Amino acid sequence: MTLAGGAPVGTNRAFRLDPHSLPVQGAARGGAAGADFTIEADKAIVRHSAGAAASLTVPLSAYRGVAVRMEAVGTDGTIRVFVELLHNDPSLTLPLIVGNEPEDVVADWEAWGRTLGLPLLVVGQDGSVSAPLTTMGGVVSSPTKPRRRHSFFAGRRPRFLTRRRIGHNWPTELLAGREIIARN
């Protein structure tokens, strides 16, 4: 297990969980105040320490996706980038990466999406959530293109069949005869 108390030395990340070494453990501050969590390949275990100690196991299919959001930190234009495992309940949203450089965080955002099999989401400044890419499992899907250049005729017979002529229904011939078998 990897215990994430901080980020590796030499990075601009305040907090980072490695997507390639599951299960990972971390501590959430903010939305899930005072919660420790463990992310495994198929579930997340959230342990709230506020009030009575409670542990909650949430399947990864209950999460909306791996979301990235940016917040302005100061007036000088610096930003902070958050990559989170987004849930409809804010107390179950789990932080994965907190960094200062968007370019450094993008690779980990995509790696978390692939590792957990969840869609990549972007949280806007107004709180709206959108999916920049549509995925089916691990494959990014895009609008389909017509197979043939002449897609106008796609609902009709194929071009090579249009050259063929329709067969005729002639009456069938009846053959009559007697059976010839050699017998003693």
Structure write-up:
This protein is mainly beta. It has one domain. Helix content is 10%, strand content 34%. The strands form three sheets. A six-stranded mixed beta sheet has the order 2-9-8-7-10-11, with helices on one face. It is elongated. Residues 1-11 have low confidence and may be disordered.
Largest sheet: 6 strands, mixed
Distance between the termini: 92 Å
How big a fraction of the residues is strand? 25-35%
Q: What coarse outline follows from CA principal-axis ratios?
A: elongated
Low-pLDDT sequence parts: 1-11
Main sheet strand line-up: 2-9-8-7-10-11
Give the domain tally.
1
Query: Can you write the helix and strand succession as a string?
Result: EEEEEEEEEHEEEEH
- What's the total helix number? 2
Number of strands: 13
Mean pLDDT level: 77
User: Helicity range of the residues?
Assistant: 10-25%
* Backbone structural class: mainly beta
Rounded radius of gyration (Å) = 31 Å
Secondary-structure topology with pairs:
Elements: E1 2-3, E2 13-16, E3 24-28, E4 35-39, E5 43-48, E6 54-59, E7 65-72, E8 79-86, E9 94-99, H1 102-116, E10 120-123, E11 129-130, E12 134-136, E13 139-141, H2 159-162
Parallel strand pairs: 1-3, 7-10
Antiparallel strand pairs: 2-9, 3-4, 4-5, 5-6, 7-8, 8-9, 10-11, 12-13
